[in-house]
# Entry
Amino acid sequence: MRPFFFCETAVQSRSELTQERLREILHYDPDTGEFRWRQRLSYGVQVGDIAGSLAQTRCWCIQIDGCTYRAHQLAWLYMTGAWCRPTIDHRDRNPANNRWSNLRQATPSNNNANRGCHRNNTSGFKGVHLDRETGRWVARLRKDGRSHYLGRFPTPEAAHAAYVAAAKRMLGEFARVE
# Structure
């Protein structure tokens, strides 16, 4: 199975990038999260230059042998020798911060738990919304694709307190409550 990266169809027949090949062409600094070129692979690249660029998704991407890889996936391969499955979570929620201490293996559910409030949130609290029919505040938590109803409360603060308690219990280190 190929790693999760953006590779054009015409290039997909190439063999999968290995830790050995990655270390041959790039140097990764786990303290800064930066990759620097060890080899000059194109005219626009000098040895020692920072590799890659920031994509529209605010994720750092690096092109190697015709394929574009996400830098956090390359950091995982560089440090462990294996592709991370199923995904990598950035502890500080900054997808451009690829310091080794900021990366951790996660499920998609864990990764979503580490998100902040949605832009359209009207209560100001993650996992809390107003039930317009009753005028009460509903707390709800999602985990592994399932929605967990936590109750109805008279104030958004009370609903948020229920959400915080459930998130810490059900999501552990991935719980992001603000």
